[in-house]
Amino acid sequence: DADRIQAIVSNAVYYIVAPAARTRSRTLEVDASVLAVISELVRMPGTVKAWRSTVADIFGDGRFFSMPLAKAKCWQPIILALMTQDKERVVDLLARVGASAGAANIFANRELEMLSRALNLRRLSFTIFAGDQDAFLTQLPLIQEKLVDLLRSAVSEVLHAEVYLCLRVLLVRFSARNLANFWPVLMTELMRLYDQVATEPESIQQSADGRNLLLSTLKLLDLLVLIQPEDFQINEWLFVTDTIDAVYPADDFQPETLLDSLSTTFQKNSKNASSHSHVAAAAASGELKRRLQIGRLRAVSSVAELVPFLNCVSQNAFEGNYSDKPIDFEDVDMCLLADMFDSDAAGNGQQLTVDGGASDV
């Protein structure tokens, strides 16, 4: 009966799941067998009260995004179950993304605060990523309001980079018609950032967080060029050459797009702007599907590493518009998942963890 099931689930959580999550290791390691138990528990009706607190503690652990990709995929239905059983959880998560302790506490550590907000924003990104198309449509206006505020605010580069990661998740988890209100602010902020980078390239080159932010914006453009939303096509010419000159430039052709300007600037300020093997050409003849060009690039030690992408993005965008190859959305999902999880299995990207245990989710 229901009472016996509830008792069994409570015991399983208390004696199996909870101890497995209390490890003191640098990364969060939950055994595969325990993960299988959690997966089964969240699927059982009427047992939410027994497991939600423990699962929320695990999701709120600062080490959550340090796990391997293989286990990260297993957590998707678990976190989705947690965040959908009470819609207010997403609202609470958004509140923590926007919360600033600086105004109330003069002793607040701004760097730690920004890292904590970035981590909460990544939790939001993973929650949306775990859902189906338009699964969080009712919360989208609040999500949009929060992301727009962050884009316009003087927050850290780490937090700004997380905003662009979240926007990439929104692009693949919401219908294009539901994202129409994002475009004016997004285009304005991208133009402002690229103008700033072109004017002061040294500030980006010398800052790891700055390079990470630039890479995050270029990954967003890489995704936009691949999926070609109608609202983006209106402004595409600002970023990439969308004419035949992208493939067969005339002798007197002078590219004037924002990405061309960045490429020219980086080549002038870099001793080595040669091609790098991890920047893939999307239009490779052997590919059966169209893929992201820099989707698997986790970090750059020099802006010169971005030059090959900047030089070929216009050509790949133009050829992609006339290609009959389908988009490899499975690969897009894997690239997004790899960017959210910082384990060695996922790559060598920037670690986004906060020491000091769990936070409420």
UniProtKB/TrEMBL annotation:
Q: GO cellular component annotations, sorted alphabetically?
A: cytosol; endosome; trans-Golgi network
One Gene Ontology term from the biological process aspect of the record: Golgi to endosome transport
Span of domain DOP1-like C-terminal: 2-323
Designated name of the protein = DOP1-like C-terminal domain-containing protein
Q: From which organism does this entry originate?
A: Sporisorium scitamineum
